[in-house]
Design brief:
single chain; alpha+beta; Jelly Rolls; 6-stranded mixed β-sheet; 2 helices; globular; disordered N terminus; binds calcium ion
Length: 235
């Protein structure tokens, strides 16, 4: 079953990566992710570009634990029945010039909050309101083959991306302390052609429709996504 999931996830990843000829600012499954897997946020400034992450570990995506396709193994602590709720990730990326739109796709098990240059741009499978180091994801995705390796598409406000070096920071949250797995990957591309922008918009719209239905089933407010230009409140 797990192998089947991996194959499906791999094919999906290939489909998405191959779909855009635009310049990857962060390729899928890329190297150079800094991570902090101690389960505690030691510095409130961990999201901002100026934060010194030189003491963090680093490795290639997929990062996490509990599944066979993980390339960088993270620690969940000493107690499998009470695992750490959160892991933190950072990566610098260079925007060589200004693009018309910026588009990302994230794979996260179970939930995630994404920040670019210190500003929140997206959250997936996470509750509304302040996000703390012990905040749990809304639902477990590990047993749901359709979403475990699904890449969630989203646009990024172009005003947040500057020419030259930028920093993306992500917290990934477990749905419960006994969850068997955690996983994270993220890719960014700069879009220029109207055709690719329209294609990305279609992906985001389809994703939003699926997740609106999912949120209705979960009985939660719509925080799985936001439409471009309507970011959630930054905490
Ligand atoms: Ca999990």
């Amino acid at each position: 079953m797990k192998l089947k999931l991996c194959v499906v996830g791999f094919v999906l990843a290939l489909t998405n990566v191959g779909a855009y000829s635009a310049e990857p600012l962060i390729p899928a499954a890329s190297k150079g992710w800094k991570y902090q897997d101690r389960g505690i946020r030691t510095n409130v400034n961990w999201r901002i570009a100026a934060f010194d992450d030189s003491r963090w570990s680093n490795g290639p995506a997929l990062l996490g634990y509990g599944d066979r396709d993980i390339r960088t193994q993270l620690s969940f602590g000493d107690n499998p029945r009470n695992k750490r709720r959160v892991a933190f990730f950072r990566r610098t990326f260079v925007a060589p010039r200004q693009f018309k739109r910026y588009f990302g796709e994230i794979c996260c098990d179970d939930g995630a909050v994404v920040y670019v240059n210190g500003k929140e741009v997206q959250r997936f499978n996470m509750p509304a309101g302040p996000i703390r180091q012990n905040t749990l994801a809304l639902s477990a995705v590990g047993s749901d083959s359709e979403v475990e390796r699904k890449r969630h598409p989203f646009f990024i406000d172009p005003q947040l991306i500057q020419n030259g070096e930028n920093v993306v920071a992500v917290s990934v949250h477990q749905a419960n302390p006994t969850s068997s797995d955690l996983a994270f990957d993220l890719e960014f591309v700069g879009l220029e052609s109207e055709e690719e922008i329209a294609q990305a918009q279609t992906e985001v719209d389809q994703h939003n429709r699926v997740n609106e239905a999912r949120e209705t089933n979960l009985g939660v407010s719509p925080v799985f996504h936001f439409k471009s230009g309507d970011p959630p409140k930054t905490q």
